[in-house]
Structures are given as structure tokens and as C-alpha cells.
Amino acid sequence: MVSRELDGQVAIVTGGARGIGAAIVRSLAGAGAAVVIAGGRESDGRALAAELGDRVVYEPHDVGCERSWDRLLQTTVARLGPPTILVNNAGIYRPGPDVTGTAPEDFDEHYRVNQRGPFLGMRAASAVMKTAGGGAIVNISSIASHRPYPGQIAYSTTKWAVRGMTKCAAVELGAHGVRVNSVHPGFIDTGMLDVITEEWNAQVLAATPLGRRGLAEEVAATVLFLVSPASAFVTGAEFVVDGGLAS
Q1: Hey, how many other C-beta atoms are within 10 angstroms of the C-beta on 123?
Q2: Domain enclosing residue 154, as ranges
Q3: Quick one: which of 34, 56, 55 has its CA closest to 45?
Q4: In 3D, which of 103, 93, 107, 108 has the Cα closest to residue 142?
Q5: What does the alpha-carbon distance between residue 126 and residue 165 come to, in Å, rounded to a whole number?
Q6: Is residue 5 part of a domain?
Q7: d(CA 173, CA 139)
Q8: SS3 state at 201
Q9: Are 214 and 241 within 8 A, CB to CB?
Q10: N or C, which end of the chain is more exposed by having fewer CB within 10 Å?
């Protein structure tokens, strides 16, 4: 049986062209939502939209730019209707040297995409959701917001910030019917992890109680729950999807 619990909903998924984002787009569209794939590699995004049908569209987008968010919201309303779901998924992950060797430019770029992006997204979408009578926002954080890893001060600190922003927004927006939650993937089998060494990968697998990498579809299933009526009384919560690694 095909799930249709999101019929009539309009979703925006940043970085939805591939990896976890693409899995989220497929999941939400499969549940009946109209979906905007916001940013990411254009060729991948347009191909995914063409595959999934007329109710899924791709829009170029820069998550760190306020004007780009304004344009995205205007386009979404005009093409599909007011967004009732926002998934702040876009992110960059570039492990490097320790804090001494981390370039300020690299730190700033992680901040711009991973932290400023979700802030601007929540800011823009919540204004529309308030008027529409409610909505659901999911911020994709990381297991790196629960435990530190060497060489990741730029990445980890932005993901820690996403935890805090999620909880602040949940408290502020609850009275308007807008729920805000965060999802914290562990080591998920996508191209983002191509940068890690085989030795590190083996160490992670050995430390993971379930003994494997996660699947993008497993993260997407958690997101689907958090934007569906099944989680109507859930806000300000953190969902760790990591096979037990942070336990």
C-alpha cells in the first residue's frame, strides 16, 4: 500500500539532489507531498525531478544567501503553494587539520552553509508557515554534534549550533503550530564519506553496535515521521540515526 499521509503538503528540501537529500525527496514525494529540490548539483536535481513527476521541481538555490531564500519562497508559493514542510539538509563536510591548522576561510564556509543556511531557511519558511497555520521543520545535524572527532572543528561546531537553533526555534514557533526537530545521522553510506580513509572507516564500523554504515533511506524514514501527523506532539526533539555509535 502506498502511503499518502502528506497529501496536500508542500515541502522544500535543501541539498535534495543526491545522497540523503535525494532519499528525503523520494520519501516525501512518495507520501504525497509536492516537493521543491532546493539547490545542489543542477543536473542531478533536474533528473530527480523529472523522474518523480510534475509535483517535484528543482530550483537553483544558495542556502547562505538571504535573497536566494526570498526568491525560493516566492517561487514555491507561485508554483506549488505555501510550504508546510522544510528540511534543512544541505551541508558540507571537509575534515582537515586540527584547530591550529584550520583556515578561517574553511571555518567561514562551513558556517555559511551548515549554520547560516538553516537559520535563513527557518526564518523564511516560518514566516509563511505562521500565516498558513502551521508546519514542520526538520534540521539535519550530525552525530558530530554529540561527540567530537579530530580534524572537524569547522564542521562539528556548526552541527552543534544546529542542535541549539532547533530547540530555540521549537520554543518560539510552537504557539504558531510550527514544529521544529533535528535529525543526527551517523556514518551514512553516501558520497559525502568518500573523504574518510579506509582505516578510519574500519574503526567506525568496529565501534558501531549495528556493525555497518547507515542507509540514506533510513535517515529519510526518520524525517518522514517527523513531518507527518504521526509526530504531531513532537517538537524540539533530537533523533540520532547512527547504529548506536554515540551510545
Answers
A1: 12
A2: 10-241
A3: 56
A4: 93
A5: 13
A6: no
A7: 14
A8: helix
A9: yes
A10: N
Which is it for the CA torsion 190, 192, 193, 195, positive or negative? positive
- Cell numbers linked to 49: 525531478
Q: Which three cell numbers stand for residue 98?
A: 586540527
Could you give the number of structural domains in the chain? 1
Where residue 183 sits, what CATH number does that domain have? 3.40.50.720
Q: Residue 191: which H helix or E strand, with range? A: none
Which residue is associated with the grid cell 499521509?
Answer: 5
- Residue bearing cell 556493525: 211
Q: Which of 182, 240, 188 is nearest to 214 (CA)?
A: 188
Three cell numbers written together for 132: 498558513
DSSP 8-state symbol, 166: H
- 231 assigned to some structural domain: yes
CB atoms within 10 A of CB 175: 8
Q: Is 47 left (phi over 0), alpha (psi -120 to 50) or beta?
A: alpha
Residue 74 cell numbers, joined: 516566492
**Catalytic positions, written as ranges:** 155
If DSSP codes are grouped into helix, strand and coil, which group holds residue 73?
helix
Nine cell digits for residue 107: 571555518
Q: Could you list the pLDDT tens digit for every one of the 247 residues in the chain?
A: 456 899 999 999 999 999 999 999 999 999 999 999 999 999 999 999 999 999 999 999 999 999 999 999 999 999 999 999 999 999 999 988 999 999 999 999 999 999 999 999 999 999 999 999 999 999 999 999 998 888 899 999 999 999 999 999 999 999 999 999 999 999 898 877 777 778 878 888 898 999 998 999 999 999 999 999 999 999 999 999 999 998 8
- Has residue 168 been placed in a domain? yes
| Cα 167 to Cα 50: distance, rounded to the nearest angstrom | 36
